[in-house]
Specification:
Layout: H1 33-45, H2 56-68, E1 75-79, H3 85-94, E2 99-104, H4 107-119, E3 125-129, E4 142-146, H5 157-167, E5 168-173
Parallel strand pairs: 1-2, 1-4, 2-3, 4-5
Helix pairs in contact: 2-3
């Protein structure tokens, strides 16, 4: 089940203290046809995306998190989070006190990411339905921004990267 939308940047928890995924409403008319097709494809692939044949995603995620040199207590935005490979690896690296926020347009992928995070017992991770080109977060909020295998799906890479830079704190890592 999805949690209600909260102020973006603030995690939401259920009565048992488990982190929930908020559906951040955005104007669906803003999604162009190409984004709708890509989203539909990943919604269809989501149930089988973590198969052994695609196990290179977690290996790449571990390496990316290692290269980012994340520190406990920091906040990471994981763009195009998919099934949460980077987000879950980062959540482990950022504990205690750090937090990961994963965003994606595919609700199927977000459902799988939430399942994976719960399976791993991670409570410092949130997932939101959100367009990578229009992250609805306040400026200078995150210490780092990651995107593994997502940039090439963007219609306007320059605009998206500008927006990701906007949500980074001064000196933040991308």
């Amino acid at each position: 089940p999805r949690g209600r939308a909260t102020a973006v940047g603030e995690p939401e928890q259920d009565r048992r203290g488990n982190t929930t995924m908020s559906h951040i409403p955005q104007d669906s008319t803003a999604l162009d046809e190409r984004k709708r097709r890509v989203t539909a494809l990943f919604d269809e692939l989501a149930p089988h995306y973590d198969r052994a044949a695609l196990r290179f995603f977690p290996f790449c995620a571990d390496r990316l998190v290692q290269r980012m040199a994340l520190q406990p207590g920091e906040k990471l935005l994981d763009v195009a989070t998919g099934t949460g490979a980077v987000a879950t690896a980062a959540a482990q690296a950022l504990a205690p006190g750090g937090r990961v926020t994963g965003i994606d347009l595919s609700e199927g992928m977000l459902d799988k990411a939430q399942f994976n995070a719960r399976k791993m017992g991670l409570t410092n991770i949130d997932f939101h339905w959100m367009d990578a080109e229009a992250p609805a977060f306040r400026s200078a909020y995150f210490d780092a921004v990651s995107s593994s295998f997502g940039v090439f799906f963007l219609d306007d890479m320059h605009h998206a990267l500008t927006q990701w830079r906007r949500v980074l704190k001064p000196g933040g890592r991308m």
